[in-house]
Amino acid sequence: MRKKITFTVISILLAAISFSGCKKDNKTGDQSTSVKNTVWTGEINYAGKAVEPISIAFGDGTLTWYELSGEYNGTWKIENGLLTISIEGAVSFKANISSDNSLTNIKSSDMSGRMLNNATRNGSDDAVLDNTTWTAPNVVFAFKPGSKIDMTLGGGAGVTYADLSYVRKGKSIRFNALPTYKWFLVTNSSTSMNGANTFAPDPVVYPFVATKQ
Question: Sign (positive/negative) of CA torsion 30, 31, 37, 38?
Answer without folding.
Answer: positive
